[in-house]
Amino acid sequence: MENNDASENIKTPEDESFKLGNRAVMSDFYVSSDIEDQQFKKIFIRLNAKKIAFKKVTFDHCFFDSCYFNNCVFNTCSFIGCKFIGSNFHLCAFERCNFQYAIFERTQIEDDILDKEAPLEENLKRSFARTLRMNFQQIGDAKAVNKAISLELNATSAYLKKSWSSKETYYSKKYGGFSKRSLQFLRWLEFWILDLTWGNGESVLKLLRTIILVIVCIALYDTLVFHDFYNIHDYIKSLETSSAVFFGFKTPNEYPNICVALISAIRLTLFAFFTAILVKRFSRR
Description:
The chain is an alpha/beta fold and 285 residues long. Helix content is 51%, strand content 14%. The chain starts with a helix and ends with a helix.
């Protein structure tokens, strides 16, 4: 037995690579007064605060587990690298706070944080919106999920565009060279086309716009090939016919088979997009 205990106390070279951190655990505390110009690096468990003002407080890399903040104000606070798990920020206000690399899980928080506290950098803004989107999905807040998705898509679009077009140092270093920039351009182009077509699965109006545009294109093709190009009445007649052709109610015999197949493929694809949007919308409720 003594030999076994001695062997357990012997440190291997790998053990010496790990040092005990300075992040203390604070459980079941409550904040009794306002806090200003302080710095914390702790794991807060079941921390409570009500009508407390936090000003210029640094919480970098802290953990908030099952904490409850009621009607508190966080002014110019830093939450870099923080993780919020199962916490509640009921009626709390955030002003000029820093949430870079923060992670939210099952946390009750107002969705206006997306408008006022998102990081300025596109990649950090995208990550911020993504973690809040997943958080809002976990608590069943469908409206906030849609808002987070909108911010995430806008940030993604801006990031992809800058990744191939911007001369900023960050993008020049990460996506330097013709091959990397060309690949990012293709990724942005794909994202832009999908956004234009159906808002990347989030916009029924953009999908309806695409359907109308396809119908107009069919009408133009029908008029130019089979009718009088200079007759406005033929355009109107072709527009009426093109709607029936697109929705599959009519198949003109004069249309080439390849055109009929192309119209059918586009119709099925757009209908699939519409179904996907409905499923995504209702699944969030």
